[in-house]
């Protein structure tokens, strides 16, 4: 049975949706990154980069959310278009989320909510880059139902993971400036697998205080500053 190493974070939630869509049995292995559990030897043996998500599928270990999406969808031959043109499109959007939306959103949230001091330059840089990525995604989703065109793929699950947390970047306005992304999110919310993933998240309580223990665990580079 698949072991799913997870925290209630956008990158883990991408994988949670795929596992729920596949309806495969899996064992949930919560890793509380606020408590530093990502640095335990047992977990770094699975992901040497000490971050969630990761999975163990029999004798196969996969870490990094998009590697897991590609591995599971490829293995089960679903949520990946067979047509070459649509497949290339899916890869392009998947990677835009992997290398653009995901890290810029993560850094925007860091500088807005977690950094020990408010740095206007960093906040402006990252929030504007997140906004720019959403503008690109909004234009695309104004033309097609799903990122790769007509079919629902792992690229959509990847987008959902971060777009569900857009409020942490844009505040109360959320995705209001991106109506096509909002339409996409409404479609996603209607999927039973997405609701099951959200129920799974709600059923697990993780440490919430960003205290000294959490800062040391997640931002060890600040210890040297
Ligand atoms: N590129 C990785 C990023 C994973 C990542 O940043 N995970 C965060 C949670 S969303 C984490 O584990 N943070 C703990 C830490 O940095 O110590 C992926 O897509 O899986």
Question: What would you say this structure looks like, in words?
Answer:
With 225 residues, the chain is an alpha+beta fold. It folds into 2 domains: 105 residues, Glutaredoxin; 107 residues, Glutathione S-transferase Yfyf (Class Pi), Chain A, domain 2 (Up-down Bundle), CATH 1.20.1050. The chain has a 4-stranded mixed beta sheet with strand order 2-1-3-4, covered by helices on one side. A hairpin with a 2-residue loop joins strand 3 and strand 4. The N and C termini lie far apart (43 Å). The mean pLDDT is 96. Bound molecules: glutathione. The site of glutathione has 16 residues, from helix 1, helix 3 and helix 10.
Outline type = globular
Helix content: 55-70%
**Number of separate structural domains:** 2
Radius of gyration using CA atoms only: 17 Å
Question: What are the distinct ligands in this entry?
Answer: glutathione
Give a short account of the largest sheet: 4 strands, mixed
- The total count of helices amounts to 10
Q: In CATH terms, what is the fold-level topology of the largest domain? A: Glutathione S-transferase Yfyf (Class Pi), Chain A, domain 2
Strand content: 5-15%
Q: What is the strand arrangement across the widest sheet?
A: 2-1-3-4
The helix/strand series, from N terminus to C terminus, equals EHEHEEHHHHHHHH
């Amino acid at each position: 049975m698949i072991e799913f190493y997870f925290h209630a974070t956008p990158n883990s939630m991408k994988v949670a949706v795929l596992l729920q869509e596949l309806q495969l049995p899996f064992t949930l292995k919560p890793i509380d990154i606020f408590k530093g559990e990502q640095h335990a030897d047992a977990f770094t043996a699975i992901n040497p980069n000490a971050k969630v998500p990761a999975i163990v599928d029999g004798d196969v270990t996969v870490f990094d959310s998009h590697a897991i999406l590609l591995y599971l969808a490829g293995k089960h031959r679903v949520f990946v278009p067979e047509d070459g043109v649509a497949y290339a499109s899916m890869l392009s959007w998947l990677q835009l989320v992997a290398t653009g939306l995901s890290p810029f959103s993560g850094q925007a949230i860091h500088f807005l909510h977690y950094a020990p001091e408010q740095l206007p330059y960093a906040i402006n840089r990252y929030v504007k880059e997140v906004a720019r990525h959403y503008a690109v995604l909004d234009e695309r989703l104004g033309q097609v139902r799903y990122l790769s065109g007509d079919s629902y793929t792992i690229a959509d699950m990847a987008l959902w993971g971060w777009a569900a947390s857009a409020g942490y970047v844009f505040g109360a306005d959320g995705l209001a400036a991106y109506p096509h992304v909002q339409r996409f999110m409404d479609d996603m919310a209607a999927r039973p697998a997405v609701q099951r993933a959200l129920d799974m998240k709600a059923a697990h309580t993780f440490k919430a205080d960003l205290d000294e223990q959490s800062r040391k665990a997640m931002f060890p580079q600040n210890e040297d500053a």
